[in-house]
Structure formats: structure tokens, C-alpha cells
Amino acid sequence: MRVDVAFTIADVPDPVPDGVHAIVIDVVRAMSVVAHALKHGAAGVRPVADVAEARERAAASGALLGGERGGLALEGFDLGNSPGHYDAARCAGRGVILTTSNGTRAVEAVTSAASIWGAGFVNAEATVRGVLAERGGVAACERAVGDELVAGDVLIVCAGSGDRAAADDIAAAGCLVGSFALLGGASGTDAARTAVALFDTWRSDLLGLARRSLSGRKLATIGLGADLELCATVDTLPVAARLDDDGVFRQVSLGP
Asked: What is the model's pTM?
């Protein structure tokens, strides 16, 4: 198995090669929100790129409406994009409609993948275990020299900040690449090895990296820097979030 990393949405191949599994990373903050909402009992989280569509879906279904533009909650929304607000009191038993500047766009970029997962630092290992369980029956195949992906491989997509790469997302991708190597014997492309190098450099101060990243600095300027403390911790939530056939992230059981 080979793991590749797309540092921005623009780096995602169109279409994603047949049979390749995709993991969307948006540490600050969409995929951290998905993990928190599911951990606290949300029935599911539907990512929607368009604000108007998000409003319509929430009104029709009675789901919680959450998200942001420019980092801030939108008028009339139930919640913004702060992971700590997606607690059991608000989420238990409820569906969530989520629209964000980058994370939900990244999901749309990989709709042709064999499966789509949402991850950050908080649920890194759980996500890897979920993907490995999903692809368990994929046979090994011969490879040509190069980094091309084939069926059963994994593409990790960093949502980034705007159209630019975000260091926090790349480091989280490196964290997942390391877990794939440890738990699944995976090899990485050059991009994957670059992500691992960034994670290894900052693994003892991920909060410091998040605060220095473009995403983190933007949050600080609007008074939401405290959210980073919930986003920059590894494996605090045993949540594997998989997008189902209806376009909703749901928690996948990882077994005993």
C-alpha cells in the first residue's frame, strides 16, 4: 500500500484514481469539529460547500446548522466552527449541517474516491484503523517506478487555508502517514515523506506549530485562538468519521 499527500486542494488529481481511498484533513477546524460532534453523539455531520444550500438543508431536516466564513459564525447559524461548542448537550441525537471555507470544499474535491474520511490530529489513529479495515481485502499489485496511486492506496488531502498550504494540515498528514506505516506497512510518496518530516520536527509542540501556522494566526486575529488547544492534540478522540453514500460523515465502529 502506498500513501500520498496533496498539500492543497489544487493538488488533488481529477478524478481520484479508481479504488483509492481519500482522507480529508482540516485541523483548524472543520474535521476537528466533525470528530467532536460524532464523539458527543451527533447522528451525522453533512459537509456542504454552499451557505445557501446549508441553510436550506438545515431548515428542511431540523438539523443543527454550523460553520463559518472568514473564521466567524454566520448570522442565523446555531454554531460556528469551534470544536468545543459541539458538545453532547447540543449534538446528542441531532444531525449537523456544516459549511466551512476549506474543509467542505476539500470533501467535494475527492467525491470520486473509493471512500472518504475526515481527520485531524485528534482522531488520527482511529482514522487509519478505519481505512485499513475498509481496504483489508485489496490485493497487492506490481508497481512501476514513481508515485502513482492504484486501487487500495490512500490519498491524504490537506484542506489548507484559502488556496494556500497550511502547516498544521501537512503535519497532521505526516502523523497519519506514520500510523499507516506502523499499522499497515505502508510506504509513502515524496510528498508523504515531507509531511512526516514536518510532523517529526514539531511533534513535541504541535500547539506551537498550530499557533504559528497561517490558519492559527488567522484565528488569533479574530479572538478564537483558544480553539487550537482542542485541535492540536493527537488521538484524543477514538472516532473514525467516514462519509456515507448520502454524503454524511458517520462514526464507524472499530470493533473491540
From this structure: 0.95
